[in-house]
Write a structure and sequence with these properties.
alpha+beta; Nucleotidyltransferase, domain 5; binds magnesium ion; 11 helices; 28% strand; binds adenosine-5'-triphosphate
Length: 327
Amino acid sequence: MLRLAIDFGTSVTKIYKIGSGIVLAEPTCVTVQKETGELRAFGAEAKRLLGKTAELTDVIFPVYEGEIVDERCAAALLEYFLKKVAKRTYGAEALFCVPCACSTQAREKYCRVARSAGLSRVTFAETPYLAVLGQDVPLSESNPVFAIDIGAGKTSCAAFSLDGIIAGLTMNVGGNNMDVHIIDHVAENFNLKIGSLTSEKLKNTVGSLIENDNQSAIVNGRDIATGKPRSVSVSSADILFPIRVYVDKILEYAELVLKKLPAEVSAVMCKNGIYLAGGVTNIAGFADYVADRLQMEAHVGGDAQMAIVLGGGRAVGNAALLKRIEL
Ligand SMILES: Nc1ncnc2c1ncn2[C@@H]1O[C@H](COP(=O)(O)OP(=O)(O)OP(=O)(O)O)[C@@H](O)[C@H]1O
Ligand SMILES: [Mg+2]
């Protein structure tokens, strides 16, 4: 029987298939013809069109800040992804990786979308659990751990054990906020208007929290004064501010969670350190920046962006564990 873990992220959908491993990672994106409502391009092909489509085509991200906002597009996109990873989805079971404290209403949307995409049984688990499982850390009742998942639109942060979440929160902050802020920052400092694909690429290639990091990239855009195409070289230092401002905000919230913990839990947390997951934690120097700010060890194991779905796969493959952590 087909068993899957699905991380239907704001930016990227990842799918883990029991027996195969991670089988898909593609933008959560579709294009829609405005007049007919027809869905044309899906996933990677749709994202490539961002900012380049003519007036009659919309590029839609059906998951916004970690929540499904367009059920029709979400269902069609999920169906497209499922067809890519399995010949038959009838009777398939799926675990959805959802933000911490995902509401009943939000889960009902997932269920409707999953059913309409052909899935039969759906369960849910919160991303902090999966972030830790994805890094091969065993969960127990007596050893609480602390994890942060920073995605494109949502950050979840929680201290928990196998017994449940001790303290946690989610916030609508992530890589997308940084991308938007980088666009404004480049406009102000270089008089250059850049698109969102360029901004994201800039963040992902030269974005860094390491002081004096001197990486740089050439970016192309439109001169704000003349309207003509122009290129400039942008360095890590040039975009440090629009990245750090959101990282600092996230860490302020993480500190709030840490402050809420009972003393015994705090002591264990300090010893265990913090587990990081989500694409944004790939920014150069991220773990060291967090460790310095929170004064505890920060772990990023393997591929941070895939950690959640990998953890989802581990949970789906272990019925007893899944029973303990499912929502
Ligand atoms: N090397 C990198 N440096 C900085 N940011 C990165 C890097 N790689 C990916 N990202 C960013 O990580 C985000 C995507 O991460 P992830 O796949 O964890 O998010 P998501 O699951 O789609 O979103 P969410 O969890 O918010 O619903 C995007 O904002 C992307 O630009
Ligand atoms: Mg995510």
